Amino acid sequence: MDFFTTFTSEEVCERYLIEVRFPGGMPCLRCGKKDFYARLKDRRAYQCKACKFFNRPTAGTIFHRTHTSLLEWFVAIFLVAFDKRGLSALLLSEELGLHYRTAWDMLSRMRRAMAKRDAAYKLRGYVEIDEMFIGAPSEATKRGRGTEKTPVLVAVSYVPVKGKEEVTGFAKLRAVDAINEKTVVDFIRTQVEGGAIIRTDGLSVYPSMEKYGYTHDREPVRKRKAHLVLPHVHTFISNLRSFVQGTHHGLAETHLQQYLDEFCYRFNRRHRRGEMFDRLLRACLEQEELPHSALAA
Ligand SMILES: [Zn+2]
User: Fold this and answer.
1) What is the spatial distance between Cα 104 and Cα 243, in angstroms, rounded to a whole number?
2) Which residues pair with 135 in a beta bridge?
3) Cα(29) to centroid of ligand 1, in Å?
4) What does the alpha-carbon distance between residue 161 and residue 158 come to, in Å, rounded to a whole number?
5) pLDDT in tens, the chain (297 residues)
6) 3-state secondary structure of 27
7) d(CA 101, CA 93)
8) For a 10 Å CB count at each end of the chain, is N or C smaller?
């Protein structure tokens, strides 16, 4: 798809949005019929022939009631979908010629849509679990290393292949206040399906997960190098570190989870890059609009 020659106007974007959102045709919000008058040029709405109601194809989505045009939204989704490392609000604001705050809001809305999509799935089968710490480097150098770093729990699923290397599957991330039995158990139970075979490094902080319906393989790290015991999670963590350093130059605790959600969403669809634009657009269409105050929270 040649993006920039396809999406040339607001109306083209709107038609595409309608196709993706309503594959069987857009129904009138009031009467359900699907027959509309031609779109008025100056109104982002289609009038129903039966009941005369003006239908806005973006109603109820994150695109609704924003001052940003659909064309700008489409470009933003395109850039976020195809940039391998993710996009900073600064870069997006420069690309689109928008205020930083507007670009930040757009990214924030997109990340919520991504998070909602991924929250619909749990990891299953074989899962490695570990933790890492993420912080902003400027703060870290000022106040001494480690003091303001946020613990992040990491889970990565994998598939054992007979006689070959295991294949890495999907990932989940959660920023927590502390790594302890409560946060670990809660993370695993909400992100990993019961019956899964869990592998951890055997540190005492990881409680036995057997009583929660998992098979738990606690391999003592001391005997082997950590990256050999948990290879999938360790590769994933090193990629995440590059993302944090490269794209964002470190991440402070504020809004950390939404950056993690974006990274996971991208990682979980790394083999479907060709479909990323449509997938992300669909995710955005399913994410309902939120008041501005909720975004700032
Ligand atoms: Zn109607």
Assistant:
1) 18
2) none
3) 7
4) 10
5) 688 899 999 889 999 999 999 999 999 999 999 999 988 777 778 999 999 999 999 888 888 877 789 999 999 999 998 887 778 899 999 999 999 999 999 999 999 999 999 999 999 999 999 999 987 655 445 554 444 688 999 999 999 888 888 899 999 999 999 999 999 999 999 999 999 999 988 776 788 889 999 998 877 555 556 667 789 999 999 999 888 877 666 666 778 899 999 999 999 999 988 889 999 999 999 877 665 555 444
6) coil
7) 8
8) C
In whole angstroms, what is the distance from residue 124 CA to residue 271 CA? 18
Two tokens at 199? 């592998």
53 Cα–ligand 1 center, Å? 5
Nearest Cα to 153, choosing from 92, 200, 101? 200
Give the Cα separation of 61 and 216 in Å (integer): 41
Stretch (H or E) spanning 242: helix 231-246
Single-letter amino acid, residue 182:
K
Total count of residues recorded for the chain: 297
Chain centroid to Cα 51, Å, comes to 39
**Single pTM value for the model:** 0.85
SS3 214: coil
| Span from the CA of 36 to the centroid of ligand 1 (angstroms) | 8
Ligand 1 mean position, distance from CA 38 (Å): 14
Q: What amino acid is encoded at 292 in this protein?
A: H
